[in-house]
């Protein structure tokens, strides 16, 4: 396995990057809560809007209609995943792409945990659409998790199987 050839050596640098994701996520959500009325839409372009909604479920509002248990379930799940990733980064994966992917997932997961603890739901505010097809609203944390998952899949797919 190739060693990490980036300036981000050691777990502290990766934790710092995860903290950066959390700060960016929380600052963007603070702006939304302070500047948009709940359930409002502010058109930015023909395919992009700012919205302000609370998502009580997971990605794509999965389980949003459940009776409240999902808040604690998704909080515990995200904390467990973040703890596992934190330990993995502490042990020091030496591959840059793997470290980036895990860091993005951890930062995004913790950003959404903060919302669940503060509001009982996640603040979503980015809405993209094409014509009458609207993608579910999402946020910076969701974007970090998605990018991290894509990088993780790419990292795994590009590796040759051990024989």
UniProtKB/TrEMBL annotation:
InterPro entries noted in UniProt: Peptidase_A8
Top-level class of the enzyme under EC nomenclature: hydrolase
One annotated GO molecular function: aspartic-type endopeptidase activity
Record-listed E.C. numbers: 3.4.23.36
GO biological process: proteolysis
Record's keyword annotation contains Membrane: yes
Keywords: Aspartyl protease, Cell membrane, Hydrolase, Lipoprotein, Membrane, Protease, Transmembrane, Transmembrane helix
Membrane topology: Multi-pass membrane protein
UniProt catalytic activity: Release of signal peptides from bacterial membrane prolipoproteins. Hydrolyzes -Xaa-Yaa-Zaa-|-(S,diacylglyceryl)Cys-, in which Xaa is hydrophobic (preferably Leu), and Yaa (Ala or Ser) and Zaa (Gly or Ala) have small, neutral side chains
Chief localization: membrane
Associated pathway: Protein modification; lipoprotein biosynthesis (signal peptide cleavage)
GO CC terms: plasma membrane
Listed transmembrane segments: 12-32, 72-90, 97-114, 134-154
Pfam family, one: Peptidase_A8
Compartments in which it is found: Cell membrane
Positions annotated as active site in the UniProt record: 124, 142
Function: This protein specifically catalyzes the removal of signal peptides from prolipoproteins.
Family named by the database record: Belongs to the peptidase A8 family.
NCBIfam families for the chain: lspA (TIGR00077)
Protein name according to UniProt: Lipoprotein signal peptidase
Organism of origin: Azospira inquinata
Lineage: Bacteria, Pseudomonadati, Pseudomonadota, Betaproteobacteria, Rhodocyclales
